[in-house]
Amino acid sequence: CTVESKKDATPWRFITRDQAMQMCARSGKRLPTSAEWYALSLGMANVEAVCNVSQKSISKTGALAECKSPSGAYDLVGNVWEWVSDDVINGIHNATPVPGTGFVSQIDANGMATVVADAPSDLFDKDYFWSRTDGAYGMIRGGYYDSGTDGGVYTVHADTPPTTSGTGIGFRCIK
Question: Global pTM?
Fold first, then answer.
């Protein structure tokens, strides 16, 4: 997949996953899968210090120039949560059970938590994973401007109804 980040733009917010999918389709693009989102974020370092996870308000895309992935994407972590196209149905993601809610302590090759713990792990940047075992949920990744240490490359909210919209939820389109 390829990504294009437009510097100095205000991220779209207050958008449900379906609305985000429609907006991407109108431009000939689509939402990334969770695995694609993770692949785009690989190589980002020191995100708590360089990304908008503790500023208490949204910023323009690329305002924090060091919060850029090696693939060229600004603000994958922080600023706004980003919808991905994946679902978690009754605690299952891609035919694999997801762990309960907790600090990420082990991941699979696609950056999805497979084990969580009660205490934060420096190996996974103290990132957090949210999930539920009953119902159908969408997934948002990365954290937002008020996530603090919970926002990061391994941070996943896998208990978000796909009809959710809010000030801290946005999206990114890919080809």
Answer: 0.94
pLDDT along the chain (175 residues), means of 10: 72 95 94 97 91 94 93 93 97 96 97 97 95 96 93 96 96 92
Q: Label each residue of 64-93 as H, E or C.
A: CCCCECCCCCECCCCCCEEEEEEEEECCEE
Helix (H/G/I), strand (E/B), else coil: 129: strand
Report DSSP state, residue 79: S
If residue 141 lies in a helix (H) or strand (E), which one and from where to where? strand 136-141
- Residue 171 CA, distance from chain mean position: 9
| Residue 22 C-alpha from the chain's centroid | 19
Handedness of CA 26, 93, 154, 17 (dihedral sign): positive
